[in-house]
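Field: COMPLEX_INPUT
Field: COMPONENT_COUNT = two
Field: RESIDUE_TOTAL = 654
Field: MODE = joint
Values follow.
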Amino acid sequence: MKSIFRSLPAFITSLCFAATLSAAEKNYTIALIPKGTTHEYWKSINAGAVKAQRELAEKGIKINLIWKGPLREDDRDQQIQVVENFTTRRVSGIILAPLDSQALVKPVNNAMQSKIPVVILDSGLKTDKYVSYVSTDNFKGGQLAGEKMGALLNGKGNVILLRYAVGSASTEEREAGFLDALKKFPGIKLISSDQYAGATRELCYQASQNLLNRFGREADGVFCPCEPPTVAMAKALRDIGKAGGKIKMIGFDSGSQSVADLKNGDVQALIVQNPMKMGYLAVQTMVKHLGGEKVENRIDTGAVAVTSENMDQPEVKELLYPPLDKYLK
Amino acid sequence: MASENKTKLWTLFNILGPFFGLLLVIGLFSSSAEVRPFFLSGGNFKIILTQTVIVAIGALGMTMIIISGGIDLSVGSVVALTSVVGATLIEQKFSPGLAAVLTILTGGLIGLTNGMLISGLRMLPFIITLGMMGVARGTAKWLSKSQTVNPPENPLNNIMALTDPTQLLPLPNGVWIAAALAIFLSLVLRKTVFGRYIFAIGGNELATRFSGVRVSLHKIFIYGVAGLFFGAAGLMQFSRLTQGDPSGANGLELDIIAAVVIGGASLSGGTGSVLGSIIGALIMAVLRNGSSQMGWPTYMQEIIIGGVIILAIALDKYRQHKSNE
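Field: COMPLEX_OUTPUT
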């Protein structure tokens, strides 16, 4: 104990040195808070952020990028804690993919109030107190899926929508976009749209099995609004022998498994966002803002419908196989 | 005389042990020159205290249960359920005060049910509360139609609101409420007959029963009162999220049990203290806060907290061994 007290003055002097040193050069500490860390989607965002970090380093702007997800993947309170902890850590800026459009409002307002700029990534937040919102226009992405479904079924058939999780704004918008686009096809009947998959792959798999057990015979098409249920549903379709196009399957987001499913024909189309671009633009936007430039309030990073026909085009290929190793190793 | 001094020293060590643990983790994060100025700031301690409130209030209830030799695995689900109940009541235009009271009583009701099943069926608390974990979680999802319940802006939101995150004061009311509850429970455990019976039941249930204490009745009370604490934790969860979240607080019971155990309680019953449990909760909050600020990856945190729990239990074994000598 005594030694701690004895070394306290030394601590304080070293602290002063550290403060003067960091003020001299132009570097930022940016915290990037995803919804989780295990899905490939978030790794692509991380890779995009690292890409921006490297490009900025060449311009002489040094960025210390802290990548930090909540301790439990779908726990709002844990993510609030991470935001709060970075607020008192006084990072230069926070880039946040909010787990919930409502629960994260207060911590974000607090950060902005303590003069720490926040860029919102991927999913919306019910406030306008942030610097910029960088994401796919999810409603448009969902519409794209709905139109594709209509085309695949020639405007006729029974369709299942397996929702992702409650309160996740991005997937809710996709679901709404999907339902909106289906209205254009009077011959398409929605036979289930009230089931939620859940945040883990295991939960998604169970939900898919249960849903197919009930509706597997009458369904002609399924839509899943993000990666975990897409992979789980394709697996469940294989289990009951309905894969390979007997039930048309449209997924959202790409991961190595869902791309493999697309290739072997178990998934007919994947609506793919550009997470690398999202991570990249989020960091660039944050740095612009920190440099005093004005930034756009809403930045759309776009979505593409990938099918077995177009998946070998180079620009689509980069979306499906983001060069993660180049940036994360 | 010498042995008496030795016992005194041991009691002192038992009381101070968790304190040293807390100082140790604070020291750990203070040793980094880069993080120290942010970590050792009033604003940060306010955040740590606020982040501890839910686990701490839960740990108060759990302390009673663990001292009595029991366990409650349903806490996470009960917190989720009561947070949904609170949010729904506000949505249904109940007055905030009434909604708060009913939220806490819901927790109490579930606790009473647990206690009655445990006493009435003479079943292991582990099994009964494992069942209740599912029942409460399911009920929360049923009540909320599996969606978060987002009531309009209301005064309950302010219990846990951080008004000015840059300085220590004013602390959110939730912190003061947790502190008041801790003092209250501490007095109950030390000064009341009920409190002493809790220790007696945990120490030797059979002997307590033979001394004429109505053990079954007291167990129902213990789980009921603990349930009130869990309901209060649920109210805090609701305030913090400004919504009722049926899928939230998953695994919270493990954080709470860990806090109580780190605080020096024994899972075999008979020992434990309110102060210890609060410090246990603080240790985990500091670890979480500090690792965030150090930029440590999430898995490091999980490994460290797991290690701390094992260390705490090992220390507990060692202490028991020593005191038996």
